[in-house]
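Translate structure to sequence.
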């Protein structure tokens, strides 16, 4: 059934994932072009290979609560979630391992420097304060430096003018609430919000193995955001976001050391924020910013652990235009440090310079290039680049292509060889490097009601850092040994069907392998797809989403394929009051996203939104 659904999704219509703020039925009411800003120079999504935008309307239409709930819809991106509520959730973009995707919140890097791979945990990233999500697939190191081999995921928080309250309750004794207030004018804006999520959850260990103890999650997020234009040429803005969460965990108790019910837990506290000064001077638009993030994690199990890490980035960027060329250039300094559970501590730093430019030699051709030099304190220097082109071939057809390189410096855990037991000094690690290229064919109907894109790509990673263990000598350490390659096809699109209906489809075929052994990479399904049928009326709106993944190799076995569906609806009682309802796993499918970890059966929630 799963394979049939995946092929049907691919064959139906090539429709884009990038969402629009509205879905008019009037053929003459054209939709605005979707713009992505994480490219440093704002760019049109249709002209940017590997770019997708998920806006607030799409988040609400899908009923997504956490980032992991909606990122699975992005073709070529797989979510690895070890437990439905609060279990560690990481992403793999185009087969690249966790830690090779850079995550930004309001432009602030929030990857966890103390995590083994430097990966970000999406499990506690609630979406109630998020306005849009931008996804850039493929090497983006020329824009953002290390950690961006697989791509970049950028979250932008919301600016509110007025008062908003939300409340929801449902299965597993789940309650969720949000309170936000703000004021917004052309000259200034200021807002603050707080949200809370609490659930008894389900057993993280699959109930088929006799697991019955529920593993809950409690998470609180608060933040502020503000901007003020001092003059027409001088403005300041900034934001601060704080999250505190506690999740119950299952573990691997003795004597069998297999996943089972335990009374373990993990607490984490994370904050991130930035301050920025904008100044127009000397014919350029300057930005001077300081961003910072900090995370503390503590795990209480049979193998307790505690980690703390922080990051600061000082950045100057200047934007301008001359002789028909739009450009941006600048410099930045990044410092990270981490304290690991084994008592080891390490500080790392990188000094960088970057430049990107875009030109249009003709009305139909757009060319973009980026170059970046990163000088690390401990692992040498690296220059990365990216070039892309988009050509309007007429009849609604757009041809685009990109080539880019990337690198990733060793994480703190890898640099100090955490949990290593070598018989001799462990080797000095080199940064991982990557090469990626892709080509895309996009099409938009004359009336703008149907649009889509097909992308072919290849991503190779060399000198991948791997933890090795010798069962004879018991030597264990990190070493640069692996080389991986991913070949893939991504199909995506959207159509306005009339009568208030719209349809979005996405499908990906991903062949990710270890070139050294020929084995498939773990936790990367060969096929995955999703379909969302939405309907918007005068007061009532609804969306049905079907998502499927094929079999995937996993640690300890094969995670079997699955198909699951969810239904979300809202009813506007008045201009200020909306009732909401959502059902997940409509067919009560028994499935796993990660081998051994159970997912909830059929579950439902109802809520209310107030806007003043």
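Result:
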């Amino acid at each position: 059934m799963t394979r049939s659904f995946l092929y049907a999704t691919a064959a139906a219509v090539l429709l884009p994932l990038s969402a629009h703020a509205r879905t008019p039925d009037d053929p003459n009411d054209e939709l605005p072009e979707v713009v992505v800003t994480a490219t440093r120079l704002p760019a049109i999504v249709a002209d940017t290979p590997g770019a997708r935008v998920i806006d607030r309307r799409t988040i609400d239409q899908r009923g997504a609560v956490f980032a992991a709930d909606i990122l699975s819809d992005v073709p070529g991106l797989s979510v690895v979630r070890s437990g439905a509520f609060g279990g560690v959730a990481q992403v793999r973009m185009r087969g690249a391992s966790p830690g090779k995707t850079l995550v930004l919140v309001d432009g602030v890097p929030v990857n966890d420097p103390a995590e083994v791979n430097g990966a970000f945990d999406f499990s506690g990233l609630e979406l109630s304060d998020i306005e849009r999500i931008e996804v850039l697939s493929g090497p983006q190191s020329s824009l953002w430096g290390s950690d961006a081999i697989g791509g970049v995921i950028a979250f932008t928080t919301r600016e509110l003018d007025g008062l908003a309250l939300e409340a929801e309750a449902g299965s597993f004794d789940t309650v969720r609430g949000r309170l936000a207030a703000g004021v917004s004018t052309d000259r200034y804006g200021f807002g603050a919000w707080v949200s809370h999520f609490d659930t008894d959850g389900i057993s993280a260990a699959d109930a088929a193995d006799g697991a019955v103890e529920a593993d809950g999650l409690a998470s609180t997020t608060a933040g502020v955001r503000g901007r003020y234009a001092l003059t027409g040429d001088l403005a300041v803005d900034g934001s601060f976001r704080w999250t505190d969460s506690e999740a119950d965990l299952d573990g691997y108790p003795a004597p069998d050391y297999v996943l089972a019910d335990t009374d373990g837990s993990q607490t984490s506290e994370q904050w991130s924020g930035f301050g920025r000064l904008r100044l127009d001077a000397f014919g350029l638009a300057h930005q001077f910013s300081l961003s910072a993030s900090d995370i503390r994690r503590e795990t209480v199990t049979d193998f307790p652990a505690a980690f703390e890490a922080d990051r600061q980035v000082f950045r100057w960027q200047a934007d301008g235009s001359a002789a028909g060329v739009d450009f941006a250039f600048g410099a930045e300094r990044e410092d990270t440090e981490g304290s690991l559970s084994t008592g080891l501590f390490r500080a790392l730093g990188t000094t960088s310079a970057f430049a990107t430019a875009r030109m249009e030699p003709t009305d139909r051709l757009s060319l973009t290039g980026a170059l970046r030099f990163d000088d690390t304190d401990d692992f040498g220097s690296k220059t990365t680049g990216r070039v892309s082109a988009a050509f309007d071939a007429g009849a609604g057809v757009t041809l685009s292509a990109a080539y880019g390189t990337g690198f990733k410096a060793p994480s703190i855990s890898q640099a100090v060889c955490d949990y290593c037991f070598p018989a001799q000094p462990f080797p000095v690690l080199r940064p991982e490097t990557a090469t990626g290229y892709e080509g895309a064919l996009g099409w938009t109907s004359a009336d703008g009601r149907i649009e889509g894109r097909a992308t072919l790509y290849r991503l190779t990673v060399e000198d991948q850092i791997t933890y090795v263990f010798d069962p004879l000598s018991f030597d264990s350490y990190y070493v640069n040994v692996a080389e991986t390659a991913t070949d893939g096809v991504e199909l995506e699109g959207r159509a306005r069907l009339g009568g208030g209906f719209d349809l979005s489809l996405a499908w990906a075929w991903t062949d990710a392998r270890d070139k050294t052994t020929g084995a498939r990479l773990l936790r990367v399904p060969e096929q995955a797809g999703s379909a969302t049928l939405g309907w918007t009326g005068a007061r009532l709106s609804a969306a049905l989403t079907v998502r499927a993944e094929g079999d995937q190799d996993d640690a300890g076995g094969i995670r079997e394929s699955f198909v699951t569906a969810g239904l979300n609806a809202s009813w506007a009682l008045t201009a200020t009051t909306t009732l909401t309802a959502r059902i997940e796993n409509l067919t009560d499918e028994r499935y796993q996203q990660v081998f051994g970890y159970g997912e909830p059966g059929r579950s439902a929630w109802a809520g209310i939104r107030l806007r003043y």
